[in-house]
Amino acid sequence: MIKRLLNIYIFLLVISVSNIVFAATVINAFKLSVQGSSADFTLNFSNQPDYKIFLLDGPDRLVIDLKNTKWQAPHSNIAQNNGLVKQVRHAKKNNDNLRVVIDLTQSVKIQSHLVSKPGNNRQNYKLVITMSAKHPQTTQIENTNPIPTPALREKLKPLIIIDAGHGGNDPGTMGKRGTKEKNLTLEYAIALKTALLSTNHYKVYMTRNHDHYVALKQRVRSAENKHGDLFISLHADSHRNQNIKGLSIYTLSDKASDKESEELAQKENRPGKIGNILLEDENDDVTNLLIDLVQRDTKNRSASFAELLVQELRHNNKMLFKPHRFAGFRVLTGPDIPSVLIEMGYLSNSQEEKMLNSVTHKKELVSSIVKAIDKYSEKYMVE
Ligand SMILES: [Zn+2]
């Protein structure tokens, strides 16, 4: 890695990295997390990138020039207006090249790391740029350790948000043998958390970790504030017809894939109540509009993850005829986070209620979910 410093008016810092150029490198994901006066910007690449990073002033911005690279990450243009970062944008340059620009609110110093990790078919790459605010007169440069520290490794771990459905005054559905959905979802959420942490590849955040009510809006908001990479909401279903059983995976859509999915979304969207007072009151039109505006890009990612889940869970043999369905679940509306909702089975079917309560089944289901997350992570979340 070659370091260069050009201390002229415009160029503050140039880090140039020469690499072997592969055919069209693809940026398949990016992430920006801002914490007070510092921010991490990460780009995931399909193969080894050939890039230059430099800072410009008047106005302050960070530029990444990439040779022979295509942007295929969701969200081409994000308004951030959060601490250091005003927005991230990108544009094609000279046909095959790409320029990514981070508009900054002030001058920063940066550190960058290119991290690679072997995948199934190919090596995966992730470029991490840490920006921190500096006083205007200093031109201190901190750069560039190719071997990430354990702290950085930890920071790079994808964050999985686990959402245990319902809770507190909102019990969800109820089984014939007395199983409450809210308890079942929490048990599975905790088991999933434990399994994910034991791989040492992920960080986990739970929208609730005990029996209390959390509004749907709050679940989405906390997932966003934590900068989650994947959102998994766990539920169990019930049906008038007690013979119906099976597991279904849902992703968000403004149109439900079928009548039943629509009814289910309405049921899961129903706010919790204390007595007759609604705990949550949202304007449906506004919600729908938001869903339509913000979710389009992450829908594809959610669908990819759902398909991976379906593949893993097929071995389980208990899938519904339509394993991947679409409906307007409010809890899946996190704009930047690929999100799925798993209806793990029907508590109205006594056989399935028994199965959902069994330790063996819980282990199997959780292990399938972890496998799907591993596959998804290999594709979209370089560690
Ligand atoms: Zn539910």
Features:
383 residues; alpha+beta; Immunoglobulin-like; Aminopeptidase; 2 domains; 7-stranded antiparallel sheet; 6-stranded mixed sheet; 7 helices; 34% strand; elongated; disordered N terminus; binds zinc ion
Rg over CA atoms, rounded to whole Å, is 23 Å
| Helix and strand pattern | EEEEEEEEEEEEHEHEHEEHEEHEEHH
CATH fold annotation of the largest domain: Aminopeptidase
Spatial order of the strands forming the largest sheet: 1-2-5-6-10-9-8
Q: What does this molecule look like?
A:
Mean pLDDT is 76; it is low at 1-22, 137-144 and 272-296. The protein has seven helices and 20 strands. Strands 1-2-5-6-10-9-8 form a seven-stranded antiparallel beta sheet, with no helix packed on it. It has helices at 150-156, 181-199, 216-225, 259-269, 284-314, 350-356, 359-380; strands at 2-4, 13-16, 25-35, 38-45, 51-56, 61-66, 69-71, 78-82, 85-93, 97-104, 108-118, 123-133, 159-164, 203-206, 230-237, 247-252, 273-274, 277-278, 319-327, 339-346. It folds into two domains: 23-149, Sandwich (Immunoglobulin-like); 159-380, Aminopeptidase. The protein is an alpha+beta fold. The relative contact order is 0.13. It binds zinc ion.
